[in-house]
Amino acid sequence: ESNTYVAIMNGSDNLWSLMTDSAFGIGAGSGATVASYSGNGLASWAVNLSGLPIDNVNGYPSILYGYTAYGSSGAISLGQPPQFPATLSSMCALVSDVGFALNGTITGGDNGFEWDEYLTPTSGADSGLSGSVEVEIFPYYNWNTPYSGYPGTFVQTFNEPATLNGTTTTIGWLEYVIPSAGQGAGSDILFYPPTSGTMSNFTHGELAVNLLDFLKEGARVSGVGNDWYVAGVNPGTAFGNQSSPDFTFNLWKFEIEQAMVE
Q1: CA trace torsion 5, 8, 13, 17 (10° rounding)
Q2: Do 59 and 236 touch, CB atoms closer than 8 A?
Q3: Which residues 6+ apart lie within 8 Å of 145 measured at CB?
Q4: Are 40 and 212 in contact (CB under 8 A)?
């Protein structure tokens, strides 16, 4: 049995309080990242920058529900269920449903839309990646040149049920690990989209996945236990390795369904 909590952020001012620009790797250059919220369920941001230092990731504008491994919070989940941090073993499902559109210059550098998740050994741990396990799920991925190779070591094709544009299907995610399996804290488990079909260039649409399956797989590969905590839910757009990023992101649906073990 389980207790299920649902957060529907569409049409709520709460969505605005969860938006963050996360421009941690800018350092130099000019331009702006402008976020907006229409009040009727549409959150968006526009990134138009120039003269940036070249780095793998310069920024990660996102919606943060809960925490990351760096201690930041998106209004601490607004004091409502779903609640984070929460241990892997305390949940039997963690479904995130997003509807989005990514437009502009989204090739030629590092560009991606992802859920950037963290597992931490204690509730509220804030020591960053060195003390946590990062789990990244990429519905859209274009890093340097698309599909010419992926960082890390290939683990397997991770076949996972999903709802894609309203249709139930199974997606074969390409699972990689950095630096190696069994590393524990400091590991990064990455799930890249398939290289063919709808998900091979998924820049707009709706996708619902059970994040808990990915997070438990990340715990298994990295060698940590199900007593580790899920910090929060954090979908957003990573960009880097380009001096002049110029793109827009519209999020018209963001839902979280968290089922707790009784």
Answers
A1: 60
A2: no
A3: none
A4: no
Q: What's the rounded Cα separation, in Å, for the pair 136 and 113?
A: 10
Closest CA to 210 of 11, 4, 1: 4
Is 174:157 a contact under the CB 8 Å cutoff?
A: yes
Of residues 237, 223, 164, the one with CA closest to residue 189: 223
Structural tokens at position 184:
């524990």
User: Does residue 74 contact residue 116 with C-beta atoms inside 8 Å?
Assistant: no
Tens digits of per-residue pLDDT, 156-171?
Answer: 999 999 999 999 999 9
Confidence of residue 213 (pLDDT cuts 50, 70, 90): very high
Global pTM reads: 0.90
Q: Which helix (H) or strand (E) holds 119?
A: strand 110-120
> Rounded to whole angstroms, how far apart are CA atoms 114 and 96?
12
Amino acid at 243: S
